[in-house]
From TrEMBL, chain A:
Keywords assigned by UniProt, alphabetized: ATP-binding, Cell membrane, Membrane, Nucleotide-binding, Transmembrane, Transmembrane helix
Keyword Membrane listed: yes
GO cellular component: membrane
TM ranges: 724-747, 774-797, 803-825, 832-853, 895-914
Localization (cell): Membrane
Disordered: annotated span: 519-547
GO molecular function, one term: ATP binding
Organism: Pseudothauera nasutitermitis
Predominant cellular place of this UniProt entry's protein: membrane
Membrane topology note: Multi-pass membrane protein
Domain ABC transporter stretches: 12-247, 277-507
Occurrences of domain ABC transmembrane type-2 (ranges): 683-917
This protein's name: ABC transporter ATP-binding protein/permease
From TrEMBL, chain B:
The entry's keywords: Cell membrane, Membrane, Transmembrane, Transmembrane helix, Transport
Domain ABC transmembrane type-2, first and last residues per copy: 135-371
Organism the protein comes from: Pseudothauera nasutitermitis
Bilayer-spanning residue ranges: 176-201, 222-246, 258-282, 346-366
Main location class: membrane
Family named by the database record: Belongs to the ABC-2 integral membrane protein family.
Cellular compartments annotated: Cell membrane
Keyword Transmembrane in annotation: yes
Any Pfam family the entry gives: ABC2_membrane_3
Cellular-component GO terms for this entry: plasma membrane
Name of the featured protein: ABC transporter permease
């Protein structure tokens, strides 16, 4: 039963678990019992399935194959997942990935507290306890995005611990964190575990020295478990004295082949060595924040120079200044004796740069990436194939040349990045944390390559890292903290100067001296009270089907994020007003000032009288007379004339004689609607003229016809465009803008990773979506009020009917519009796609099919069908009804109910399409 | 140096094409916008006066009134709905009928007696597009019926002057001709802005553009690569759509030179893709870009002359819209496609588009490096 060899029943039991992503087998045949109440480590290279395994255990990913039992139940069952997720805490890989960067520490914690149903007092107590214990208490008001890497991880931990989990899952919590923060993090975990001895902790880590301290380890490779046991058992089994060696010994033969310890031949000491990089007093300020403060150094040609420091201490910024990506606020830098200049193309050709994140084109294959870069770096065409072959051999990329980078494990992608940075044989490599998140074997291989480059090819390497064993391999290192360089020396010299036992200890000593502990001022003594473990309130134990509190906590968070990005809110509000203004005045269906000209072959008084009749109206403007048919043809083709008339010779004479005469008229039919209206005008004016002529000749009597028609233009007696258009543009804008806002709100969480909180907290899909929707509904209503004010005050289009009815209908309508945005973002993965769907799904129906210009009843085919059911057409009817026809809801209930029906449909669809687990 | 630059532009452009090719969602959306979206927009457009909903209150119930009622039939009008007087107001309030004709009692008797009685026509004037034309049609139809009826009883003279009115370039005033081509123009603008602008924001968020900037490549090369590659995609889609959807499925006869139209489209794409890049340098994140795009696209679509005639707009709107490339493109395409105009006619528009494009391109270029490196 107890494969792990603990006393208690296992907290996690996996049998026959497998997982595939497309063609990639991430996990295969995993059978594993993880003992309860222990600190369990998952170790192994990148891309072997550690993270996949953890997300399965946390319930964030759907089980595909096998059985995953956590806390005594099957994670494939929804009911068990819902019941157990309040007892599991999951902190995903990546610094602060599930946090909200624009929200403060306090607000992040409040949000998570609310999700788990704690009341205000309870939240206050827990937040104070946790932040005091982690030293975050003085920073409660700071936005999460502005915390250092270590502090972000502590905040992530606080968020995970706020609901007293029984199982804590941490995916590489200390990757990218400086040594001091790392040691503090583990001390914190140890303290928390002392306070909650029953809690099980599962940690994935790339640091073998950390894993040594865990209770029990699972070594993984290629989607399978290699070995399990305590660190001591693993040492014993492999006959090694450290885990790093033990792990390598556990690997199957072919994976181990080629691995040997990294040796660094000393740098030849040439007094006259050329200086590759020189920086003097480099400073970078962003607003009032100084990211880099007076940094100076000199790097010799062929030297490996290391930059050491925590995340956010200014390493990357310094490197960007050297590459010319960021112009320095102060100070100067030289590469190969040339001043750094963003426009200096020639110097760029001598430099290879590898940024922190993988920044190659994931849509291009490995080979295409290499070839593209070779070409851009001006490698001679004849040499390209050879160079690409050389790189792929040197960086062992032969097997993956035709794969897309996304399908490759991180370690291989890093090799590709380096290969790309090297393809043009640069003399200087600037590498920003190239090995972050890469496993030990791959890291060693990587370093061997670099040492080779530096020593054999005399390439200067400027590298940043937070691995101490890597720093030890550099010729010299600079310790950076808070934008300043603390010290630059060779690693051995640093250890000697501090009298420390290791580089790590020396580094921590330097950091402490530099005041890094300032951030940790509230660090309590070890015996300080750990967060109190009290039973969570009952509401959190049994998740309700729909909890308004949880939905509201999402609303509140969304509203806060909206407020932190004032540009977005302002664009939405101001933008709609501007659009209403432009379109209200601009769209006009009155056809006026049509240009016309006459080919008058008669030139009699009567023919001139006929022309005057036309020219005198406001609908037509006369242009220079037409000379001949060719002139007419040319001017009509150019669009100069909308109407051309030809009056035949003898027109006046024949008319007076009572002989039939014919006037020819041509209308520009290119724009059918305008042509039709113009046709009507011409025919009408012709009739009037005839009637006038008859009256003059025969007296008034003959003018009267057999019958007459009295036309009453209702609702808009002057038939002006404004009262017809303004009430129609408002629904148009209220559809498009809220939909665009919500569409990006959800898919953005997908792209940035915080969607995980939906997967692993008790929040349901309905709570998530509706919670997110509410702030945008409020924004939409505010928008509506502003637009109505504008319509009344500026356009002078009064609301003749019942305003409350209009407001109520608008509320329903905005619910639909925001719902549509949510719908667009449930099935798309990228922001561009969601944006595209939102535009296509709203613009065409609203502009063409809803009856803005042509009534729905006159449309045909698909457009008619869309127009009949789309809420935009119903809202248009209601809006026009209330604005111009002085109506209220009872008169418009048909349109109202048809629209109201669409709301549950669209929200229901969104909920059905949204996934509560990753697949 | 020049050839290096050209080579870089070419390489980077090919890279853009690969990126698009490996994004099935975008490809699907492009196909949709240039086929189904155009088809549905074109076919939905009502033909002249189409299916105008009409109701009649017949208080006369005479042979003449029956004759009048039976004169309304599809496709111009729906079959008339017969109403009682009290049903008129609610029906019009709910927007069920655009026109309601009220034939008074003793209508036929009064007509024959030469008392020239009046029929009342109620028009829902909030439906601007049908109100005027429809009222004109109804007037003609009713009076025609009445006159014919009277003629059988009395006989009457033909009008002395005949107006021979013809529509040129689109004799049937088929709206699908107009709608399909204008929809293509809308999609060209929409796609070219999304493909360059949104893609640039995404590259910025993923850090790949930063990577390019440290290579021996200038911002102008990066931008030109985007302009030519995405322009090419949209241009091919346009040509395809014009040939298969518009000429093939919708059977729209195209009078002018398609090559000249595509040439203009090329200039237009240069302007809109530059606009997309320019907007991407203004917005700091995708949500901001999305809103900005709406703000720009809607007026471009509604006010550039593709939806309603430009000359009827207020002067101010006309002047402002002169700064938009679509205004010139719409006017050039209408001239080429409908009226068969040649380069001798449309060159001023072409020049205008080119100038606008050049301005957007150079402003975007000036902002490019600065804004890209200061990503939010």
């Amino acid at each position: 039963m107890n494969g792990g060899g603990g006393g208690a029943a296992p907290v996690v039991r996996l049998s026959g678990v497998g997982l595939r992503y497309g063609a990639t087998q991430a996990l295969a045949g995993i059978d594993l019992d993880i003992p309860a109440g222990r600190m369990v480590g998952l170790i192994g290279p990148d891309g072997v399935g550690k993270s996949s395994l953890m997300s399965l255990v946390a319930g964030a990913r759907a089980v595909q194959q096998g059985r995953v039992e956590v806390l005594g139940g099957d994670m494939a069952e929804r009911r068990h997942r819902e019941a157990s997720c309040p007892h599991i805490a999951y902190m995903p890989q990546g610094l602060g990935k599930n946090l909200y960067p624009t929200l403060s520490v306090e607000e992040n914690l409040q949000f998570f507290g609310r999700l788990f149903g704690h009341d205000a007092a309870e939240r206050r107590r827990r937040i104070d306890d946790l932040t005091r214990a982690t030293g975050l208490y003085p920073f409660l008001a700071r936005p999460a995005g502005k915390l250092s890497g270590g502090m972000k991880q502590k905040l992530g931990l606080c968020c995970a611990l706020i609901h007293d989990p029984e199982l804590l899952i941490l995916d590489e919590p200390t990757t990218g964190v400086d040594p001091l923060a790392r040691s503090q993090f583990w001390a914190l975990i140890a303290r928390i575990r002392r306070g909650r001895p029953g809690m099980s902790v599962i940690v994935a880590t790339a640091y073998m020295d950390e894993a040594e301290r865990f209770d029990w380890l699972v070594a993984m490779n290629a989607g399978r478990v290699l070995a399990t046991g305590t660190p001591r058992e693993l040492h014993a089994r492999t006959g090694t004295d450290n885990l790093e060696a033990a792990f390598i010994a556990l690997l199957p033969e072919e994976a181990r082949r080629g691995h040997r310890a990294v040796e660094v031949p000393p740098l030849a000491d040439e007094a006259d060595a050329q200086i590759a990089i020189e920086a003097r007093g480099l400073t970078m300020r962003f607003g009032d924040f100084t990211a880099v403060d007076q940094v100076s150094f000199r790097i010799r040609r062929g030297e490996i120079f290391g930059f050491l420091g925590s995340n956010g201490c200014g390493k990357s910024t310094t490197m960007k200044m050297l590459t010319g990506l960021l112009p320095a606020s102060e100070g100067e830098a030289w590469l190969f004796g040339h001043k750094v200049d963003a426009r200096d193309i020639d110097t760029r050709r001598r430099v290879g740069y590898m940024s922190q994140a993988f920044s190659l084109y994931s849509e291009l294959t490995v080979r295409q990436n290499l070839v593209l870069h070779a070409r851009l770096f001006n490698v001679a065409v004849a040499d390209i194939d050879a160079r690409v072959a050389e790189m792929s051999a040197r960086f062992s990329l032969d097997a993956v040349l035709d794969s897309l980078p996304d399908q490759l494990p991180l370690g291989v992608r890093q090799r590709l990045s380096l290969a790309v940075a090297m393809v043009h044989k640069p003399e200087l490599l600037i590498l920003d944390e190239p090995t972050s998140g890469v496993d030990p074997v791959a890291r060693d291989n990587f370093w061997r390559l670099m040492i080779d480059l530096a020593r054999k090819d005399h390439v200067t390497i400027f590298i940043s890292t937070h691995f101490m064993n890597e720093a030890e391999r550099c010729d010299r290192i600079s310790l950076m903290h808070a934008g300043r360089v603390l010290v630059s020396e060779s690693p051995a010299e640093l250890v000697r100067q501090r009298g420390a036992e290791s580089l790590e200890a020396a580094f921590i000593a330097y950091l402490e001296e530099a005041g890094a502990q300032g951030e940790q001022a509230a660090e309590p003594a070890d015996e300080a009270a750990p967060p109190v473990a009290e039973p969570a309130p009952e509401s959190a134990r049994r998740p309700a089907a729909f909890s308004p509190a949880r939905a509201l906590s999402y609303s509140q968070r969304e509203a806060m994020e909206l407020m932190r990005d004032p540009v977005r809110g302002t664009l939405a509000l101001l933008g709609s007003l501007i659009l209403l203004l432009i379109m209200g005045f601009g769209i006009t269906l009155d056809v006026e000032n049509l240009d016309f000209a006459v080919l008058d072959r008669d030139q009699s008084t009567l023919s001139q009288n006929y022309v005057l009749n036309l020219a005198g109206s406001r609908y037509f403007t006369e242009r220079a007379p037409i000379a001949d048919y060719a002139d007419m043809d040319r001017r009509m083709r150019a669009g100069e004339l909308s109407l051309a008339l030809e009056i035949p010779p003898g027109f006046g004479r024949d008319l007076l004689r009572g002989q039939p005469v014919q006037i020819a008229a041509w209308i520009d039919g290119a724009m059918p609607q305008r042509a039709e209206t113009a046709q009507g005008y011409v025919a009408g004016m012709h009739q009037t003229w005839l009637a006038d002529m008859a009256r003059i000749r025969l007296g008034a009597e003959a003018g009267a016809g057999a019958a007459s028609i009295e036309t009453r233009y209702r609702y808009n007696p002057d038939v002006r465009s404004l009262p017809a258009i303004v009430p129609a543009v408002i629904p148009l804008l209220l559809l498009m803008i809220p939909a665009m806002l919500t569409a990006l709100a959800v898919v953005r969480e997908k792209e940035l990773g915080s969607i995980l909180n939906l997967y692993v907290t008790p929040v349901t899909r309905a709570e998530f979506l509706i919670g997110k929707q509410l702030p945008y509904v409020a924004l939409g209503m505010l928008n509506f009020l502003l637009m109505v004010v504008l319509a009344v005050v500026l356009f002078g289009v009064p609301v003749k009917g019942d305003f409350l009815s209009l407001a109520l209908a608008t509320l329903i309508y905005v619910l639909f519009a925001t719902g549509f945005g949510l719908f667009a973002s449930t099935f798309t993965r990228s922001q561009i796609a969601a944006m595209f769907v939102a535009i296509l799904g709203t613009m065409l129906p609203a502009v063409q099919f809803a009856g803005l210009l042509n009534p729905v009843s006159s449309l045909e085919g698909m457009g008619r069908a869309i127009g009949e059911i789309h809420p935009a057409s119903h809202m248009l009817t209601i809006s026009r009804g209330v604005f111009t026809k002085a109506l209220a809801l009872p008169d418009l209930h048909g349109a109202f109910w048809a629209m109201a029906l669409a709301v549950p449909v669209i929200i229901g669809l969104s909920i059905a399409l949204l996934r509560k687990q990753e697949r | 140096m020049k050839s290096r630059s050209l080579a870089n532009i070419y390489r980077l452009g090919v890279k853009e094409l690969w990126s698009l090719w490996r994004d099935p969602m975008m490809l699907a959306l492009i196909v949709y916008t240039f086929t189904l979206a155009i088809y549905s927009a074109a076919t939905a457009m009502p033909e002249t006066l189409h299916n105008a909903s009409i109701a009649v209150v017949d208080e006369d119930v005479s042979p003449l009134s029956a004759r009048v009622v039976s004169a309304f039939y599809p496709p111009h009008f729906t079959r008339p709905q017969m109403l009682e007087l009290p049903e008129v107001d609610p029906g019009m309030d709910e927007g069920r009928y655009t026109f309601v004709l009220n034939i008074p009692p003793d209508f036929q008797r009064d007509v024959l007696a030469g008392r020239s009685p009046a029929i009342q026509l109620n028009v829902d004037a909030t439906r601007m597009s049908q109100a005027f034309t429809g009222a004109g049609y109804i007037q003609q139809i009713v009076l025609g019926e009445v006159n014919e009826f009277v003629q059988r009883h009395r006989g009457s003279a033909a009008p002395p002057v005949d107006l021979n009115l013809r529509a040129r370039f689109n004799p049937g005033l088929t709206r699908a001709w107009f709608g399909s081509l204008m929809e293509i123009i809308n999609q060209v603008t929409l796609l070219s802005i999304i493909l360059t602008g949104a893609a640039l924001i995404r590259e910025r968020e993923h850090g790949t553009i930063e990577h390019l900037l440290v290579m021996p490549v200038t911002p102008a090369e990066i931008m030109l690569a985007k302009v030519w590659s995405m322009g090419l995609v949209v241009l091919c889609a346009t040509a395809f759509s014009l040939k298969t959807v518009v000429e093939g499925v919708l059977q729209v006869p195209i009078e002018g030179s398609i090559a000249l139209f595509l040439g203009c489209a090329m200039l237009h794409l240069f302007a809109t893709t530059s606009m997309g890049i320019f907007m991407a340098t203004l917005a700091r994140s995708m949500p901001q870009f999305g809103l900005l795009m709406l703000l720009v696209l809607l007026p471009l679509q509604m006010l550039s002359g593709g939806t309603t005639p430009r000359e009827s707009m207020p002067e101010l709107a006309q002047h402002i819209m002169l700064a938009a490339p679509t205004t010139h493109f719409v006017s050039a395409s209408q001239a080429i496609l409908y009226r068969g105009a040649g380069l001798d006619v449309v060159w001023p528009q072409c020049l205008a588009i080119l100038a606008i494009g050049a301005v957007f391109f150079s402003v975007a270029l000036a902002r490019f490096r600065k804004t890209i490196s200061q990503m939010a």
